[in-house]
């Protein structure tokens, strides 16, 4: 369960890098413009392209949108699920308490 978010974050970082490089190769914009266009596309802000998009750039943008939005929604769903499970799972609270008790050393328990 703890590996999934790291893999998703790595996929999103890879998507940002590949989007930036893709725009650089297809459109020839500056690196900053390419990064800006990638971030804008993935976050669905929609300010508009820093320059005119050619046909290949438009197709690339559509693919980037579909893959990126899918990954972002999945990541948000995973984060929400993890938070809700932590809050609502009584077993998780018990396991946390047991781990805390097991880590105690040099204590005396007095029962009366």
Automatic annotation (TrEMBL):
Q: Which PANTHER family match?
A: POTASSIUM CHANNEL PROTEIN 2-RELATED-RELATED (PTHR43833), POTASSIUM CHANNEL PROTEIN YUGO-RELATED (PTHR43833:SF9)
- Residues spanning the membrane: 59-80
Span of domain Potassium channel: 12-83
What SUPFAM superfamilies does the record tag this protein with? Answer: Voltage-gated potassium channels
Q: Does the keyword rRNA-binding apply?
A: no
User: What keywords are annotated for this sequence in UniProt?
Assistant: Membrane, Transmembrane, Transmembrane helix
Query: Among its keywords, does the record have Transmembrane helix?
Result: yes
Recall the taxonomic lineage recorded for the source organism: Bacteria, Thermotogati, Deinococcota, Deinococci, Deinococcales
Q: Which InterPro entries match?
A: K_chnl_dom (IPR013099), K_chnl_volt-dep_EAG/ELK/ERG (IPR003938), Trk_Ktr_HKT_K-transport (IPR050721)
The identity of this protein, by name, is Potassium channel domain-containing protein
């Amino acid at each position: 369960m703890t590996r999934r978010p790291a893999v998703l974050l790595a996929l999103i970082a890879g998507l940002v890098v590949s989007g930036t490089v893709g725009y650089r190769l297809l459109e020839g914009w500056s690196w900053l413009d390419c990064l800006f266009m990638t971030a804008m596309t993935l976050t669905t802000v929609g300010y508009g392209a820093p320059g005119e998009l050619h046909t290949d750039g438009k197709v690339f943008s559509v693919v980037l949108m579909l893959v990126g939005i899918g990954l972002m929604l999945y990541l948000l769903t995973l984060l929400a699920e993890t938070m809700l499970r932590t809050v609502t799972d009584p077993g998780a609270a018990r396991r946390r308490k047991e781990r805390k008790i097991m880590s105690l050393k040099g204590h005396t328990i007095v029962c009366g």
